[in-house]
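ERR on first pass: missing label on line 2. Operator R.T. fixed the label and resubmitted. Corrected input:
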Amino acid sequence: MNPAQPYLFLAAALFIIGMAGALARRNAILALVGIELMLNAANLSFVAFWRHGPHPDPQTGLMFALFSIAIAGAEAAVGLALIIALFRHRRSVSLEAAESLKG
Amino acid sequence: MTPWFLLFGGLVVVGALGAMALRNPVHCGLSLVVTFVGLAGTYLDLGADFLGLAQILVYVGAVAILLVFVMLLTRTGRGESPEVRPGGWWWGGLVAALVAVGLVGALASVSGWKPRSEPMTFPTVRDLGVALMTDFVLPLQLVGVVLTAAMIGAAILALPERRGGRVGRTPKGEEPEQ
Amino acid sequence: MAANVDQIFVHLMQMMVDRVPDAVAPWVRAAVGVGAVLGLFGLLFGLTTVCERKGIARMQNRLGPNRVGPFGFLQFAADGIKSLTKEDVVPRSADRVVHYLAPLALLTPVVLTFLVLPFGRNMVLMHVDTGLLFFFAAGASTELAVFMAGWSSRNKYSLLGAMRAIAQMISYELPFILSTVGVVMIAGTLSTVGIVESQAARPGEWLARWNLFTPWGLAAFLLFLIAAFAEANRSPFDLPEGESEIVAGYFIEYSGFKFALFFMAEYLGMFASSGMAVTLFLGGWTAPVAALDWIPSWLWFFGKLLALIALFIWVRGTTPRLRMDQLMDFAWKFMLPLALLILPVVAVWHYLGGGWRGWLFCTPVLAAAYVLLGRALVGRRRIQRRVYRYAGEGVAS
Amino acid sequence: MLGVGIIKGLAETGRNFIGSYFDRDRLVTVEYPEQRVPLRENFRQFPFLVHDGQDAAIGLRCVACQICEKECPPQCIYIEKSKDKKPDHLGKPQFFPAVFNIDISVCMSCQICVEVCPFDAIKMDQDFELSTADRFGGLLLGKTQLARPNTHFQRIHPREAAEIDTRRADERQKAEAKAKADAEAKAKAAAAAAAGTAAATTTAAVDAAKPVGARPAPTTVPGPASARALPGAGAGTVPAAPSEPGGQV
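pass 2 clean. output:
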C-alpha cells in the first residue's frame, strides 16, 4: 500500500461515475458535466502523483493540473456555447436532438 | 489516509453520484459544486494550496455558474423528456464497469513503489510563478492562445445568427431564428 | 508600553492557548479567533445598520431611528429579535432543500474571507501564502448561493434578481481581481500579511509606502472600491434588489431569520471588501506617517475600515440606481480596460523604481486613459435639460 | 468629465449631513406620537355616522336607504333595515338602521358612500389611528362604534358642517312653518267649520307638532307649550353654540 493509493482510488471512482453519467444521461449539459468529472479525476491523480510519487521534481504535477484546469474552463465554455447553439436550432438539449449529425 | 481525506473524498463521491443521478438538472449542477469543493479540499489536504484555490475560483466561481446559467437558458416550457437515454444505464454502466475493473486491477497490482527519497518541498506561489515564466513559458503562452480562441469561439457560437448567415447582433425586436 | 498595547490581543490569545494541553491548542486558537471575529463583526454589523440608517436620514434631513436605547443605537437588537421571532415562510412550490441551504451557502464563504484579513500586527487568523487568492475564491462562491436562493424560490422576481446579481457579480469580478494584480506585482506576494508589510515605511522614511500614494495605486483603489460596491450589491449597483422593479431580488421569498442571514452576509461581504481594500491599498495596519507609529496597529486597521464603511454609506445616500445596460457598459467598457492598463503601468513604475520618473510617466497615462474612456462611455450622450410639454418653465403659456 | 457629478452629489449629501446637526430648521420631520402636525380640514379617513343630539341610539341621521351599501366599491358596508319607523328631524317617519357595519379592513376611504348619501348621514372621519390587536373583531365596526355626534363633524370639517347645518335648519324651518301653517289652517278650518272648544284646537295643534318634537322627553308632554318646545327638540341640528358644552367629544 503506497500513500498515493487512496487518492488514486478516489480518482478512479470519480472517473467511473463521470463516465457512466456521460454515457447514460440524455441531457447534453449533464453529459458535459460527466466529462468535467472525468477531467477532474485526471487532475486529482496528477496531484496525488505529484505529492506522493517518487519523482523529485517539485512542480510538474502541479503545473499539469493547473493547465488542465485552464483547458477545462475553455472546454466548458465552448461546450456550453455549442449546447446553446444546438438548443436554438432544435429547442431541446437532448442528445438525441443532435442525431442528424450522424453520417 | 487522514480524516480530511475521508471527509473530502466522501464529498467528492457523494457529489459526483448526485451530479450524475439526480433528476433535476439544476440539482445536478449544485451537486457538482459539492464535488468541486471536495476536490479543492483534497488538493489543500495534499498541500497544493494554489491549485485548490484555483479550483474553487475556476470551477465554482465560473464553470458551475456557467452550467446553471445554460440550464436556465435552455429550459423549455414543456415537460422534460426522460432523463436517461433508453438503455443508457445498461451500456453506460457496462462500459463504466469494464473501465472500473481495469482501473482497479491496475491500481491494486501496482508494485515496486519506491518511497520518496527526499522530504517533500512544497513550492510557494512565487516558485510556481517563476516556473510558469521560465520552464513552462511555452505552455503558458499556448494556454493563453487556446483560452482566447475558446472565448471568441464560444461568443460566436452563442451569438444569435443573422438571416444572411453572418454573425452578429440580431436586429431589435427580431427573435433569433429557431 | 506602546508595543504591549499593540500586541495586547496577541498576548491574550497566547495566555489562553498556554493554559490548555498542546493537543487541543490549535483548535482552541482557531475557535477563539473565529469566535472573536464573528462576535466583533456581528456587533459591527448591527451598529452599521443603525449608523447607516441614521446617517442616510441625516443626509435627507430626517432624524432616523432614535427610539430604542440611547439615540436609537439599540435599534439593531430590536430588529434582530423581531427577525428571530418572525414566522419562517417557505413557498409551497419552493425547492425546500436548496431554499434552506442558500443562506448558509452565502454566509459561509463570506465569513471565511475574514480568515485572511490582517487586523493588526501578528493578528491574522490564517497566515497563508495564498491569502489574496483565498479571498477571491471564497468571494467567487457567493454567486452560486445567490443563484440557489433565486432559483429555489420559484418566483419570477427572485429568479430575475438572481440573474441580475450573477451577471453583475461576474462582470465586476474581473476588475475586482485585476485591480489587485498591480499590488501583487509590487509586493511580490499573494500573502495579505506580506502585502501590508511591503507598504510600511522603511527605516528613515517619514511617509509610509501605501499603494494609495502612487498614481496607479489610486486608480486601482478606486476601481477596487467601485467593484466592491458592485460585489456587495450596494447602491448605486443595487439592481439585484431593485425595489421598484423586482421587489427585493433574490431574497423575496425569505423571511425571518433566513432573511436576516442574507442581510448579514451582505454587510459582512461589504466589511470584507473594505478590509481587503485597507489591506491592499491603505497599508493595512500601518500608520500613514512614521511619526504616528505609536498608535496601536489594530486601531489603525479598524479606523480605516470604519472610514471606508462610512464612505459606503455616504455613497449609498447619494447615488441613484444605475440602469442594467449602464451597469454592464461601465464594467466592460470602462473598468476592465482601465484595470488592464494598470498592469503595464505598474510594470513600468516598477522598472523605473517609482520616484519622480514614475510619477512623470504614470500620471499622464492614467489620466489620459481615464478621460478618454470616460468620454467614450458618456461623451456623446450628453443629457439635455428636459423640456416638458405641459409643465415647467419651457411651456409657452 | 466622468465622476464630477458623483463628487458634486457627495458634497451635497455631506452638506446635508453636517447641516442637519447644526441647523434645526433643516429637520422637517415631527416625532409623531408626541408631536403631531395639525390635520388639514380636507383630510379624510374612514366614514362615520352622524347623529344629532347626545344619544346615538336615537339621533342617527341614517334612514337605512342602503344606497351607500350598494355603491360601496369594496362592499364593506352591511345594513339591516329596521322593522318600525322613527320620525326624522323633519318629522317624517323613516326607517333607521338596525345593523350598520363597516369593515374598515376592507374600506379604502374612497368617500363614495359620502358622495351618494342624500341625508348627510355618513361623513368622512379624520381618525387614522385604527390599529387593533384583534384583527377580526376589532376591524368590524358596528353602529354604535361608528356613530359620532354632529359636534364632532362640526369640529373636524367646520366649513362643510356649517353648510349642512344651515341647510338642515332651513329645511326644518320650512317644515315647521308648513306644519304651523297646516295646523293654523286646520285650526282655522276647525274653528270656522264647527263651534269647537279651545281644548279641541290645542289638541289638534299638539297632534300636528308631535312628530317633530317626538324625540326628547319634554316635548312628549302635551300642553300649550308645544310650539315653544320645538327648538329644544332639534338642539343637535343647531350650529354649535358656546352654551352647549355637552356636545364636545
